[in-house]
Amino acid sequence: MNCQELIDQQNNFFNTNKTKEIGFRIKKLRQLKDVLKKNEQVLFDAIYKDFKKSSYETYATELSVIYSEIDIAVKNVKRWSKVKKGVASLLNLPGISYSIPEPYGTVLVIGAWNYPYQLSLCPVVAAISAGCTVVLKPSEVSSHTSKIMAQLINEAFEPSFFTVVEGGVKETTALLEVKFDKIFFTGSVAVGKIIYQAAAKHLTPVTLELGGKSPVIITKDVNMDMTAKRLVWAKFLNAGQTCIAPDYVLVESAAHDEFLLAMKDHIEKANYTIENDNYTQIINDKNYERLCDLINESKIYLGGDRDRNDRVISPTILRDVEFSDKVMQEEIFGPILPVISFETITEAIEKINKLPRPLSCYVFTKSKTIRNKVLKEISFGGGAVNDAMMHFAEKSLPFGGVGNSGIGSYHGKFGFDAFSHQKSVLQKPFWIELNLKYAPYTSGKLKILKRILE
Ligand code: NAD
C-alpha cells in the first residue's frame, strides 16, 4: 500500500466517526496495553539487541511510562472530552457559548531511537485518547525495536485505525508528501526543521519535541553528596543518550573540586564501567565516533575508557572546559560531562543565555534568590530545582521545549490537547434578537453600542 492509499483508508475510517466514541478509544488503549504486557520479554530482547539496554531500564524508563500514560488516559478521557462552557457576552444573550474538543483526524507520529518504545508510543496514546487515527514511523536507527513494534501493532490493529510504517529518510519523506492533519515529531533540531517545512506545505499543525544543551548550575551551599548522586543517575542513565540529560555543568568555583570528588565517588558506586553488562551501549558507530571526537584527552578528569567493538564509553568528566571547546558546540547526547566553573550567578546565566534555549535546565542551590533568578532569567522547556530529569515523571506538568528545543508539549491531558482542536460554538435561541447590529446605523444606536461595550 502506498502512502496516499494508507492515508485515504485512515481518513475513511476517521470519517465513520467511530474514533469519536469514548468507549472505542478506551478499548483501543486497553488493547495496546495488553499487547505490550503480553510481549514484554520480546520487547526487552529487541532493545537489548539495539543497544544493550537492560530490562530494568527498559521497564522503568519505557514500558512503565507508556502503561502509566495509558492508565491516565483511560481514567480521564471522558472528562477531557467534555464540552467546556464559556460565558456568552452581553451582545449574544440569551445565547450560550461552549467549546468542543475534536480530534485533529489522521496523524503522523515520528519517533526517535533513544527511548524507542516510549517516544513512539506515548504520543500514540495521546492521539488515540483524542480520537485520531495514527500512522507511527519509529526510528530506523534502533532497527530491532522498530521491527518488533511494527510486527506487534500491525498484527493487533486494523491499518485503517493504527499502523506502523518502518523506514528511514526515504520512507519518512514519502509520508511527508501526503497531507496529515497533525504531525508529532521527536528528534533532532536539524530534522525538526525539515519536518516543519514539509508540514507547512499542507498547513499541518506540528508538535516538535527536539533537543539541545541542557545546563546544570550548582552553587557552593548545596548538599554536594546528594547533588552528585542525582546528577550521576541523570547523566549516565542510557549512557547519556537522553534528550533531557544534563549536558554540561556550571559549578561555583569555590565548590568545583568538591563537586568533582563527589561525582567520582558516585560513578564508582554505580559501577558504571565499560565491562558492566548493565551499562548501555552507544547506539551506532557514527555516534560512537562523534562522541570520541568530543573528548579532549588533556581535559579528562575521570573516565575516557572506551571499547570500539562494543561501542561503550565510560562516564567521562572533562574539567577546565571553555565555551569555545568543541564539546560545547553541539548537544553531547552521550556519557561525557563538561564542567566549567563560575564566580557569579549573573555571569553563569549570561553564558547559558548565549546558547539556544535548552529543553531542560537544572539548578542546585539552597538560595531562594538564586533559584528565583535562574527561573526568571533563563528560558527553557522544563526542569528541576535540586534534581535532574525527574520532572519528566510529573504527569500533571506539560513536557516540551521552547525556541530551538521544540514547539508544543504533551503527557497526560497536555497530550490529549496536542491532538485536539477546540471547536468554539455560540448557540442562540430564535425568540429574541438585539436589533443593534442591523443597519441602518443611527447615532442613537452608536450611543447604545458604546454604552454596552465600554
Ligand atoms: P533524528 O532527528 O535523527 O531522527 C528522528 C526521526 O526522524 C527518525 O524517525 C528518523 O527516521 C527521522 N528522520 C531522520 N532524518 C530525516 C529526514 N532527512 N527527513 C525525514 N525524517 C528524517 O533524531 P534521533 O537521532 O533519532 O534522536 C536524537 C535527537 O532527538 C537528539 O537531538 C535529542 O535531544 C532529540 N530528542 C528529543 C526528545 C524530546 O522529547 N524532546 C526525546 C528524544 C530525543
Cα-atom Rg, whole angstroms? 25 Å
Mind describing the biggest β-sheet? 7 strands, mixed
Q: How does the helix and strand content classify structurally? A: alpha/beta
Spatial strand order of the main sheet:
10-13-14-9-8-15-16
Spatial gap, N to C terminus: 60 Å
Poorly predicted segments: none
Individual helix count: 15
Overall strand count: 18
- DSSP helix fraction: 40-55%
Question: What's the shape?
Answer: globular
Average of pLDDT: 96
Bound molecules: nicotinamide-adenine-dinucleotide
Strand content: 15-25%
At a glance:
The protein is α/β, with parallel strands linked by helices and 454 residues long.
Provide structural commentary.
The chain is α/β, with parallel strands linked by helices and 454 residues long. It is 43% helix and 17% strand. The protein is built from 15 helices and 18 strands. The protein has helices at 3-15, 22-38, 40-51, 55-80, 116-130, 143-156, 169-177, 189-201, 224-236, 256-270, 285-294, 345-353, 368-377, 412-418, 443-453; strands spanning 84-85, 96-103, 106-110, 133-137, 162-164, 182-186, 206-209, 215-218, 248-252, 300-302, 306-307, 312-313, 316-318, 336-342, 360-364, 382-385, 406-407, 420-427. A seven-stranded mixed β-sheet has the order 10-13-14-9-8-15-16. Helix 5 (116-130) links the parallel strand 3 (106-110) and strand 4. Helix 2 packs antiparallel against helix 4 (55-80). The longest helix is centred in the N-terminal third of the chain and has 26 residues, at 55-80. The protein is globular. The chain starts with a helix and ends with a helix. The relative contact order is 0.14. The site of nicotinamide-adenine-dinucleotide (NAD) has 28 residues, from helix 7 and helix 8.
